[in-house]
Specification:
With 1529 residues, this protein is mainly beta. The protein is 11% helix and 39% strand. The chain has a five-stranded mixed β-sheet with strand order 2-9-8-4-5, with no helix packed on it. Strands 11-18-17-13-14 form a five-stranded mixed β-sheet, with no helix packed on it. Strands 21, 22, 24, 25 and 26 form a five-stranded antiparallel β-sheet that branches. The chain is extended and about 180 Å long.
Length: 1529
């Protein structure tokens, strides 16, 4: 924070006209000051400070107003009577009113004379100091330089500057290098020189006053010049052209007649990106006119801020406020408030730090800042920014640039690959559109948050304004014309000129050129070509871009090669000639270095010096090669740690910086990095460590103490007064050692010393006073630097004896342990107790500025402290205390200083503990801040401990410890500690009996050490049945000793017992080889290591011993078992992917001839593949596992060394586990439900790897479970589960699902049988039902006919067969496809509708041939062929030629859909049941599918065949309904 204070030798001298009385009073004051100076020398003699030094400090202190005019006292009637009695003894006037008036006039006159005397004395000192300064020869120096102004026409402008020099310099004014002479232009110029401030006033400016003005100061020792530009603008419509509408912000001229004094100033502030902050400065304005507030201007880093969305400003109500609602790192900097006053300006400055917000990803860098657009053209702009600081993050590898059209929130990334430098040419913009830009940094951890978006930029052709010319006519009128008007009619433009590379970087090259002249009026664009230098092979490079700006970035150039470029101008009429080629351009030099030199070198030596109690002044040497430096980043680190933290978050331009926000008393070291467009330099060397402490001698207020305040009367007996006061706010950097009190009669001006010897306490009794007289007092504090400035005089206090019965006021109210929700108020007992002893106190509290006090204690408290818990965090309060006695409630104390309920940053509490080495019990506090003069003051129950044999206080650095000598119950209580010379660092802790006992136990353990055990004595059964007893110590030394005791007898290493230890692990063990019943008892191990001892016992008796013995015997048997072939893993089951259950085991210690056999219920099982015991694993597969596989399986392993057996009982839970495992596999592999129609109904099928009825499967219809019935049949095969709806109807519509549960989860498959799906399925069911009915009732040959018949001639041939059909079929016989007629030779018979015969009497060779029978009714028929061969007597029997029976039609094969055949026989339907209109199907038109029901072997079928209804069509080929998801193949 930097407050600009006007030096005393710069202040304006004010002449005063004094009366004779005032002159006389001044002489009296001077004599008084001389006496005071003499006394001052006497007081400071003990501090080794010379009189001259003290006088110089006092003189410097006079620059600030030290004294205040006392407020006129408002007297009551009682006081008026007392005053009358006092005055009437000296002056015989009897009117009380006259006496009061005279007394008031006397006080007013005295105060006025005091003020005049002080002003005169200060003025004399100013003259003496000025004379001293003027004796030193100095060349002219501008303390306040000229500032540029931009104003409207016909308004005045004032240029001011302040010059110093010895002898006083002469200032001359110049305009554009020509001296300004007011006589040549009367009334236009006015030159002023008042109090060293030189001014040039130009009244009623005109446009011709636009120029550069300079003030040249000259004396015998040199010349100094200050320059500033004045720009005069004419409003639009007043004759001057404003075509572009670009009017800069105008500096408002405001001559103030207000007197402004700044009061509470904003301090150094800290904010975070994305947050908000307000800077407020309160002030006193005289006169305070609500409608005319003072003019206030805010600056950041000397740049004037304007109100807007990012900076909200207000002035009024006695305060100037700047609010930054959307903080970004761009807002970091030095903020200055400048207020125009009657005498000039009042200023105050303080730094605002803005830290990075939380990164978007851990380790990502901070956001870039200061994004700005340069070189704006019609479709091109150059975006530049400043890099963020990287302290602990990975190095930045590049940046992404985004753009957004104004009014839109859509951001578009401009570059595909990160650019490594802090600027990037953006092209492809649309002319006339406005854009914002932002930048994001990239490193190995991720992408940063986006920067604050840039100001709005409009893509315009910059050359358009250059083509405008202004011609003045008669000096009054301006005519604007374009170059187009002067060029004439031009069609094809000229060629561009001056093609060159304006930006040459490793990532890209920016080409620039000048537009052609003439260019024509048609819209113009450019074509750019490149070639390798010297080759002449030109290639166009902007084929996809129509370029309107004389700028173009080229990105795809190869490193190490030189290129040349040329440009064409093109419009709608044609193209110009090519421009002259550019000079050869290359991105990288031959040695591989980038053409721009790169990052700057590291800064030089860094020096840190003390500044304040929370800041350090850091300065460094600039780098040798500045390389267009942007500024510096400063990093800090606490000494002893490795983590660096950023001190600033925006590059700082100067080589010195004040680091704020440090912990008082802590030591830091610093480093610096330089920043330019290429990034950050290497870190500088670290500075030497420095402790954060205030610098001595930094101004008067830090050398000698500030003034005490709050003078209070505690008691008066008529001849003496007891006074108390509060300590100064600033001790001056050293401890306050003394106080000096002065007094005076309120009716006089002369001060008298009260004490010649120093008073150490803040209470003093002033004797030798006259009763009835009013006195005033003032107090000064002294330290090693001298005596500080005196306090303001107290209010006049009447010396009269206190005779009230009630006690006087408590005093010295102070605060301790201020936190967000509580604080402790302390006070001292009243000096005047009244007529009885004080029995308690009442405490009142009120918010600051409020007069409504609340009593915090319902009853008076006896102690002189109170913990207040009814406060709100952040609120400010005041307190007062009233003493109570038997006579009543006494006077209230003086109000406490306002206190804010808020803990100091880094506040810590008292921590109790025990010293690990000595075992001492202590309380410890680490202070969050400390100064060189700070001390730790410990108290018990808020009474200072002092020298006490029970405790000892020590301090080291920022930590203090209170150690108890012999702690006991007498040490219980509340302990507190206060760190002096800080902002209230304090804490307390209540030591309770339980906490003390706990610490005493720990103290005893430290003072009487034991060997700490990580594990007590335990036992472990080893594989061979051996038992190991062991214990483990945390740490053992090589000299440690131990012994084992069993049943009160020491055991040592011997037969069957082995004792050992390991120092590294701390394990001590005893191994017993044979553990039997005789080993029951108590085991103890005793360990000694130096002074430390310990022992641990283990009781092995009763059931505990039996368990250990059983385990030991088991391990012994296991050891014996494992000597031969044995199972390393007993039988267990697994389920393979194809749902085969494997009984598996693992074997060990086997040979080739080791036998392995499987048994179930003692019946041997011989697997297809013999087990291979040498592989170490054997398995028995159980395919198609079901309930039949339950039983006890056994595996036997044997050879000549022994035998081992493993049993596995598949029943109960084991069986359920196997079924669940199968269900898990089946459920995971289950397909979606498939719809299959059958003649019996509609079937839903679910295919899976394996299905068995033991699985927990549930079919549901509309969420309700389905039970198997005649209507709903549930079944399955090994490959699928199905559910069939027999004879479906509309009420069977709805959602069907199957749930397969594996005990852990349920696998569900569903099908929605409704709507079109049900309609199609029902139609298919009816078709299949009709087809099945036809198949069962068609005519067919049941049996009796051979395929081939061979017969001798002259024999009789009889072909007889049984036929069936309903209705009774028609039978026809054919020979060689010709129907056989019935005659004597051939006879055809059909008896009973069942037996058909063809009889040929006396066969001849002519009867040989192919015979056939055709059996048919209305549902179809069958055609059977028989081959007949007739041979003569004596011929060889011919080979038979088989005839193949033909089916009536081809039969399509339906998918596998096994159905349960009906066990209920259905009678053959009668003829009356067959519809008369039904046609008999023909082989060609009625394909007959294979029924899933087995074909009946007798004429009477067993499958139920429902009767077809009238009007049903002939069956059609079957269609198979599927679920929406195809079934698994």
């Amino acid at each position: 924070m930097a407050s600009k204070v006007t030096p005393w030798y710069k202040k304006k001298r004010v002449s005063q006209v004094k009366t004779d009385y005032a002159c006389h009073h001044i002489h009296c004051v001077l004599r008084t000051r001389q006496q005071t100076a003499a006394r001052f020398g006497r007081k400071s003699s003990s501090t080794s400070t010379s009189v001259s030094k003290v006088q110089a400090q006092a003189t410097e202190a006079m620059a600030e107003q030290t004294y205040t005019i006392p407020v006129f006292r408002q007297r009551t009637v009682e006081e008026g009577t007392e005053e009358y009695q006092r005055v009437s003894t000296n002056v015989e006037k009897g009117l009380t009113v006259i006496q009061d008036e005279l007394y008031r006039m006397r006080l007013a006159t005295k105060a006025t004379m005091d003020s005049l005397a002080i002003q005169r004395e200060v003025k004399d000192m100013m003259y003496r100091r000025r004379d001293t300064l003027e004796e030193i020869p100095r060349m002219p120096d501008f303390m306040v330089a000229l500032r540029p102004h931009t104003v409207w026409e016909k308004t005045p402008v004032k240029l001011y500057c302040t010059v110093e020099g010895t002898p006083r310099p002469v200032v001359k004014w110049y305009k554009g290098g020509v001296a300004v002479d007011p006589l040549n232009a009367p009334g236009r110029y006015k030159i002023e020189n008042k109090y060293g401030v030189h001014g040039l006033i130009i009244s009623r400016c005109v446009v011709s006053d636009t120029a550069e003005y300079s003030a040249v100061a000259t004396n015998a020792h040199g010349v100094a010049t200050s320059k500033a530009t004045v720009t005069v603008k004419r409003p639009a419509g007043s004759g001057e052209s404003c075509l572009l509408g670009l009017v800069p912000h105008l500096t408002e001229i405001h001559s103030s007649k207000l007197e402004v004094s700044l009061l509470d100033r904003f301090s150094v502030s800290f904010g975070v990106e994305g947050g908000s902050i307000g800077l407020v400065c309160t002030m006193v304005v005289v006169p305070d006119l609500p409608n005319l507030p003072p003019l206030a201007q805010w600056y950041r880093d000397d740049k004037l801020l304007t109100p807007g969305k990012l900076a909200e400003m207000s002035v009024g109500g006695g305060a100037a406020r700047l609010t930054l609602p959307h903080l970004a790192k761009d807002d970091e900097g030095l903020y200055t408030l400048r207020i125009f006053t009657k005498d000039g300006t009042a200023e105050h400055s303080a730094y605002l730090f803005v830290s990075d917000a939380a990164p978007s990803a851990a380790g990502a860098p901070g956001a870039p800042m200061s994004v700005k657009a340069y070189d704006v053209n019609a479709d091109y702009v150059l975006v530049a920014w400043k890099p963020p600081n990287t302290v602990n993050e990975a190095a930045i590898t590049g940046y992404f640039v985004d753009r957004c059209e104004a009014g839109s929130d859509t951001w578009v990334q401009c570059n595909d690959a990160p650019v490594k430098v802090c600027k990037y040419p953006v092209h492809g913009l649309k002319e006339g559109r406005s854009y914002h830009f932002r930048v994001r940094a990239v490193n190995s951890a991720g992408v940063s948050r986006a920067s604050r978006k840039s100001d709005k930029v409009t893509a315009l052709d910059a050359a358009e304004s250059e083509r405008l010319q202004v011609i003045k006519i008669e000096g009054k009128y301006d005519i604007v014309i374009k170059d187009d008007d002067l060029e004439g009619y031009v069609t094809i433009p000229g060629e561009p000129v001056d093609v060159h590379a304006s930006e040459v970087l490793k990532s890209y090259v920016v080409l620039s050129w000048k537009p052609p002249s003439p260019r024509g009026r048609a819209p113009l664009w450019y074509v750019v070509e490149k070639c390798l230098a010297g080759t002449g092979a030109w290639q166009r490079i902007n084929t996809a871009v129509k370029l309107h700006s004389p700028r173009y970035p080229v990105f795809d150039l190869q490193d190490g090669l030189k290129y040349q470029f040329r440009v064409y101008s093109v419009n709608s009429y044609g193209s110009s000639e090519a421009s002259e080629p550019s000079e050869p351009v290359q991105k990288v030099e031959e040695d591989g270095t980038e053409l721009p030199v790169g990052v700057p070198s590291a800064p030089g030596q860094v020096v840190a010096t003390r500044n304040t109690k929370s800041s350090v002044f850091v300065q460094w040497q600039p780098p040798k090669n500045l390389k267009n430096l942007m500024g510096y980043y400063i990093d800090g680190r606490v000494v002893g740690t490795k983590d660096w933290f950023p001190c600033n978050h925006k590059p700082f331009k100067h080589s010195r910086f004040v680091v704020h926000g440090l912990i008082p008393g802590e030591s830091y070291t610093f480093r610096v990095q330089a920043v330019n467009v290429f990034g950050l330099s290497e870190e500088s060397q670290e500075s030497s460590p420095i402790a954060v402490q205030p610098a001595l001698g930094k101004g008067v207020e830090y050398a000698t103490p500030s003034a005490p305040f709050g003078i209070t009367l505690l008691s008066c007996d008529g001849s003496s007064m007891t006074l108390a006061w509060k300590r100064p706010e600033h001790c001056g950097g050293s401890r306050i050692t003394a106080y000096y009190i002065d007094k005076r009669n309120a009716d006089t001006l002369t001060w008298q010393e009260v004490n010649l010897t120093a008073v150490a306490e803040r209470i003093c009794t002033v004797d030798n006073l006259t009763e009835g007289i009013f006195y005033e007092f003032k107090i000064q504090a002294a330290n090693m630097a001298g005596v500080g400035v005196p306090s303001a005089p107290s209010a006049p206090i009447k010396c009269e004896a206190w005779t009230t019965e009630e006690p006087g006021p408590a005093y010295d109210l102070s605060f301790s342990e201020v936190r967000g929700q509580s604080l402790v108020l302390l006070w001292k007992a009243p000096v005047y107790t009244g007529t009885s002893a004080v029995t308690g106190y009442l405490v009142d509290m009120a918010k600051k500025g409020s007069s409504e006090f609340v009593t915090l204690t319902q009853e008076a408290v006896s102690q002189r402290f109170l913990q207040v818990t009814s406060v709100e965090e952040g609120e400010t309060y005041v307190f007062r205390v009233r003493a109570v006695s038997a006579k009543g409630v006494g006077r209230p104390s003086r109000l406490s200083e306002p206190v804010c309920a808020k803990a100091l940053p880094g506040t810590q509490e008292i921590v109790p503990g025990v010293d690990e080495v000595t075992g001492d019990v202590f309380l410890s506090l680490e202070a969050c801040e400390i100064s060189e003069t700070s001390t730790f003051v410990w108290s018990k129950n808020y009474k200072a401990i002092g020298d006490c044999p029970r405790v000892a206080a020590t301090a080291k650095g920022r930590t203090s410890r209170l150690t108890f000598t012999n702690p006991d119950k007498g040490d219980l209580g509340r302990y507190s500690v206060v760190v002096t010379d800080t902002d209230g660092v304090s804490a307390s802790h209540t030591l309770t009996e339980d906490a003390l006992n706990t610490m005493l136990e720990l103290s005893y353990a430290i003072r009487h050490p034991v060997v700490p055990l990580k594990h007590g004595l335990s036992y472990e059964i080893l594989p061979k049945g051996h038992v190991r007893f062991w214990a483990q110590a945390v740490k053992l030394s090589p000299s440690a000793s131990y012994r084992f005791i069993v049943n009160d007898k020491e055991v040592k290493t011997g037969e069957g017992v082995k004792i050992s230890h390991d120092v590294a692990s701390g394990v001590i063990q005893m191994t017993v080889d044979t553990f039997t019943r005789s080993n029951e008892g108590t085991y103890t191990v005793q360990i000694t290591d130096g002074k430390a001892k310990t022992q641990s016992s283990l009781v092995l008796v009763g059931d505990v011993f039996k368990v250990a013995l059983k385990e030991a015997e088991f391990q012994r048997k296991e050891h014996i078992r494992k000597q031969g072939p044995h199972f390393s893993e007993y039988l267990y089951f697994t389920v393979t992917e194809d749902c085969t259950v494997l009984l598996a085991c693992k074997v060990a210690n086997v040979k080739k001839d080791t036998s392995f056999r499987w048994y179930k219920e003692d019946d041997e099982i011989v697997p297809d593949t013999p087990p291979n015991v040498v592989s170490g694993a054997c398995a028995l597969p159980i395919p198609l596992f079901s309930r039949k596989d339950q039983g006890v399986f056994k595996a036997v392993l044997s050879d000549d060394r022994g035998k081992d057996t493993s049993l596995f009982d598949i029943s109960g839970k084991v069986f359920d586990d196997i079924i669940n495992a199968l269900a898990q596999n089946a459920g995971a592999s289950a397909s979606e439900l498939v719809l299959q129609c059958t003649p019996e109904g509609i079937r839903l099928q679910c295919y899976m790897n394996y299905y068995t009825e033991e699985m927990k499967t549930v079919w549901k219809h509309k969420g309700s479970k389905i039970a198997s019935s005649e209507k709903m049949r549930i079944g399955g095969t090994a490959e699928m589960a199905w559910m069939q709806i027999c004879d479906p109807s509309d009420k069977e519509k709805g959602n069907y699902s199957i749930e397969i549960s594996d005990g852990v989860q349920t696998h569900t498959r569903a099908f929605d049988l409704s709507g079109q799906a049900y309609t199609d399925a029902y139609e298919e069911y009816l078709r299949l039902k009709a087809a099945a009915f036809a198949e069962k009732n068609r005519g067919r040959v049941v049996g009796g006919l051979p395929d081939v018949v061979t017969i001798m001639e002259d024999k009789s041939l009889s072909l007889t067969c049984t036929v069936w059909g309903e209705p009774t079929p028609e039978v026809s016989w054919f020979k060689n496809e010709q129907e056989v007629a019935c005659n004597e030779h051939t006879r055809v018979t059909f008896e009973g509708g069942k037996f058909a015969s063809l009889v040929i009497n006396t066969v001849t060779p002519d009867d040989s041939g192919k015979y056939s029978i055709n059996v048919r009714n209305k549902y179809g028929g069958e055609f059977v062929e028989i081959t007949v061969s007739v041979y003569r007597h004596g011929e060889k029997l011919p080979e038979p030629k088989l005839g193949q029976p033909k089916s009536a039609a081809a039969t399509p094969v339906p998918p596998k859909s096994p159905a349960t055949p009906s066990k209920t026989p259905t009678p053959t339907p009668s003829k009356s049941q067959t519809p008369a209109s039904m046609r008999s199907p023909t082989p060609a038109s009625t394909p007959v599918p294979k029924s899933p029901t087995p074909t009946p072997k007798s004429p009477t079928p067993k499958s139920p065949t429902p009767t077809l209804s009238r009007g049903v069509k002939s069956p059609t080929p079957p269609r198979f309904m599927k679920s929406p998801t195809p079934p698994r193949k």
